[in-house]
What does this fold into?
Amino acid sequence: MKKKNFSDLLSIDEADKKIIEMIEENPGITHSDIAKEIEKSQPAVGARILKLERKHLLTKQVGFNIKKVDIKVAIVYLSTKDVEAIVKKIVNCPFINHAFKTSGEFNVLCFIAASNLQTIEKLVDLCFRRDDNVINVKTNILIESIHDFVVPIDFQIENFDGRYCGPDCLLQDEIPKFKFNIEKET
It folds into this structure.
């Protein structure tokens, strides 16, 4: 049985791979420059790029590159009783930048970014450590990114008051009797 490679799995050819590699290296590269490199016409390159975008092999993501900016990012590992309940809770949360279902002891992984660690810690306490569905929480703070990694950010986190995320937060029904005081950094 032949082992499948990326080309087989993604239904792309060598020209498509070269286009992807060139755009990864230089997102601002022109169709003309790509056309010269892969020896295709400019319209053919445009059509291939459109096809790759429709297949979700080329996407544009706006955010900050954690390798280049000084934003605090935490990777939060969760061990839960019910993964779907946590997914429902965080799917629209503006403060969870990325989230993944994973295998192993921890079955959910989240990226949370903020201007300071106190905000991240208070959010983790409120959303996860106080949730009866969460068995265990492990938080790691990113010290340095080895590679470029773009993380979308929702600026609403700057308005986090320690109670709940915003208008669509599922915690609104369970607002704690206390309110955190978040000191603004100057």
